[in-house]
Fold each of these.
Amino acid sequence: MVEDVKVAYVFPGQESRQVGMGLDFYVHYDSAREVFDEVDKALGFPLSRLCFEGPEEDLAQTMNAQAAIMTVSIACLKAGEEISDGSLPKPTLVAGHGCGEYAAMVASGVMKLGDAVRLIRERGRLMNEAGRRKPGGMLQIMDLDRDIVEGVCLTTGVELSNINAPDNMVISGDEHKLAKARRLAQVKGAKRMQPVKVSGGFYSSLMEPALDGMINAVSQFNYEPPIVPIVSNVTAQPMNSLEALKEELISQIVHCIKWQQTVETMLARGITTFFEVGPGDILTKYIKLISPGALTFNLSNAEKASEIIKWRKGGRF
């Protein structure tokens, strides 16, 4: 086995939801089924059925989508461990994109699954309510440099809410400001832009109405020190103290997700291999834009998990 390989687990956010996610793991692996059953019991309704069957409009609701993504991500992780008979490489660092941080918290032992899914569902409810109180949206810009996007923000009053990759960013603001920002971005040369399908201007000051509720919600649960350091969305630095972790859960909703910087921090600390654990491959695409030479794997379904095991048996990590 290669000795100098350092692995990070990364967990996707709300954009990665899709009807049917996690179903193949649920059908074939006891460990994944136990995750879905535990979550259904904790919430008191079958979130698993919503993941597997939809309908899409219900799954897309913020309080459902965030809890569903976290649940499927942990089911993917547990199934991967079962398939590999416990031989998956252990991570040196973990991180999550947006609500993916909750899966990272569970994976690193900070929160129990049942507590985490109750907290993230409340987070989704609070963010959705904040979106009603301060209406807004999000716009992804895929072909402008960061300094240009920051200039657009400054001029139009929108906020930079995701730094995903060198030329892949998201801005948040009210409808009027976003329209002005779109027009200015077009003038600056943007040709690829698309609205993000969420219920408000997430990761910006528009989420401030949710802060008091988040402070109260976070205080209701127990936390343990992380087994593996979690790299923060807000600071892009590893978090080790419980105070830092709890503060992250609160402040994250009003701050920009610094995903590019998060990945760069992990690379600087020697990470060579990334496992995207959860539905889809959005984070894998971002990582490849940030570091084309990084080795990436997707633990999103049984077929992808089998590919990882082949690499593992071949001594590649």
Note: The longest strand covers residues 159-165.
Amino acid sequence: MHALENKTVLTDGQSKGYWTCQLLGWGGYGFVYFLAVLVPLHAAGPKQFAGDLAYCLTGLLGTHLLRSRIKLRGWSEITYSKLIPRLIAGALLVGACQAFALDGVLALEGQLHISRQDQGMAIVGVTIFFSALLVGLWLAIYLSVQAVRRRRTAELDALRAQVLLREAKLLSLQQQLNPHFLFNCLNSLRGMIDEDTRRAQEMVTRLAELLRSSLRQDQRSLITLEEELATVNAYLELESVRFEDRLRIRRDIDGGAASALVPPMLVQGLVENALKHGIAELPGGGELEIRIRRSQDRLQIEICNTGTLRYDAAGIGTANARERLRLLYREPADLSLSEEPPGWVRATVSIPYQTTEAMCEPSS
């Protein structure tokens, strides 16, 4: 919700800034042209002022329509070989409209005879040329501002993604260092030391691995699924000791997905939610199923558990995960919660399938 509000405020601010620049730019140009060109030539009268006003208003409308076209067609994302001809054509078109608006007003007032080939059309041609240059300058400034804005947005998104990753690690660490969690782990260890020393040692190792992964100050925004599942497995081994036969785990993981890149603590956070808000609240325990599949260019992750969906239990962890997905992926990435079939809660994540090798390949 906060991200949406911030985005709305930012969009409103950009729109106001754009129209301010448009009005000041074209209005300032018309004013300077009237005073610096027409007045010295003793041609500054109501008729010339009307032509100058028509010229600037047409330029304002034309550049605004060009901007809409650029945004609608995504011109800022295409190659220069395709972009430049379109910009030239757009500048010439707007320049022609400006020229005919100016000369049309003057012709109506008897100041210019457009029908005369030897004079009127020559003046129109010169006007189109200089108008196109002016619109070309406008396009260069607009696209430069957009490029700087996109770069700054990408930098801010990267910083926000890092902050959210730290929050996810902190939430996970708080969950794992929860006194109740540690008490159960240590209590199970005490009873296991005499009965099954080897298993007790393994449990200590898993606890150390889990805490190490949470405390690790890793700046990577993406890790391999294999690394993420190692943390998940350590967590589930500890919880299996606590839940005993009340926790039944099933894994259905595509063997070819191990090298896929995923946000750190994403699967881990969903598994923790499934246990904390689902299975832990059932007297008889329940089942947890982890399904991970590669479907063409997508990676599908499903965490299912027996229980009832409580949207208030999703809390900041789910909101954090959704925001991280939005910041990390330009392509559609989604996290949804549903209760299907009845008695089962399903968390579904769909992200682009990426690997370290693919990201390192040079672009063609």
Note: Residues 19-155 form one domain.
